[in-house]
Amino acid sequence: MPAKVSVLICTRDRSTLLEACLLSVLDCAPPAAEVVVVDQSANESTRLVVCRLQEGKVPVRYLRGRGPGLSRAKNQGIEDCTGDILVFTDDDCRVDPGWIMALTEPLRAGMASAAVGRTLPDRAGENGEETFSVYAPRGTRRFGPRTHPWRVGGGGNFAVLRDVIRAAGPFDERFGPGAPLQSAEDMDMVHRLLRARRRIVYVPEAVIWHRSWRDRAANRSLARAYGVGAGAYFTKYLLKGDLLSGWRFVQRVGIRSCHLIAGMARGDRRRMGEQSEYLKGLFEGAARFVSGSRPGASGLAGLEREQA
Question: How far is Cα 47 from Cα 193, in angstroms, rounded to an integer?
């Protein structure tokens, strides 16, 4: 019996970008069995976009988000999706017509529990800088238990067996956009899947394009957010006794410092700004995790119990 595929897209206040994303997903052949949109927007524009696209052959279901945070939206969507395979993309991406088929092929063939695809930069908008959120590695197509999650790629081009991700537990709602730790919810999930010895493979034929819509100030803020999430992620697992995560924190500080120095040598203002923000974010994220800074939380132990 062919596997049923659900595509999950979480969004907040980006209805124009979401519409382009949805149109590209609905253009995939063969299509998904369903597309589920979890919306945390402050207005009705996203719901109206989804409503306009609900008359086609592929069911497009709209879910009103139960609260802020990308991890929370993903958890809500995972609960509601009915597919055997869950495929994730972001609202600011466009997908290739063969994307669903290529990304899910290793899972349908029983060769892997999860797969990541190739993410390329889309053309920059009128006021946007080219995005740095891309993923197109060379070399290995398989990842082992000790692979650094950042080598596996992000959650915007990701497929996983439903039973596998449910067994791994929910996304940690302290991580990700809209949450105190701002990013790295996908890296935290990849870490858990790898350590559970789930096979993840890279499928370069599964191509998406990440829209370049942010201006310089927004990209610097994003770099800071990425640093916060990374610092918190490394700290989370170091405190659990994973010394490798501690080493990777030190390694990340060294690598990003080298990038900063290179930017200074070239007079590259964008690189200098983004790398300095990322470095500050690394230490900020570590401090936030240790202090359990989530508003209203009863400390780190209470937050850990919520995820159990």
Answer: 33
Tens-digit pLDDT profile for residues 248-263: 999 999 999 999 999 9
- Measured in residues, the chain has a length of 308
Q: Which residues contact 217 (CB under 8 A, 6 or more apart)?
A: none
pTM for the structure as a whole? 0.90
| Sign of the CA dihedral with 21 first, then 26, 32, and 36 last | positive
Q: How confident is the model at residue 215 (pLDDT cuts 50, 70, 90)?
A: confident
Tens digits of per-residue pLDDT, 3-34? 899 999 999 999 999 999 999 999 999 999 99
Domain ranges of the chain: 5-214, 217-294
Distance between CA 246 and CA 258 in Å, rounded?
A: 19
CATH level 3 topology of 5-214: Spore Coat Polysaccharide Biosynthesis Protein SpsA; Chain A (3.90.550)
Query: Looking at residue 135, what DSSP letter applies?
Result: B
Determine the Cα–Cα distance for residues 171 and 275; give it in Å rounded to an integer.
Answer: 27
Torsion angle of the four alpha carbons 127, 129, 130, 135, in this order, in degrees rounded to the nearest 10: -120
Residue 45: which of 82, 80, 91, 94 has the closest Cα? Answer: 91
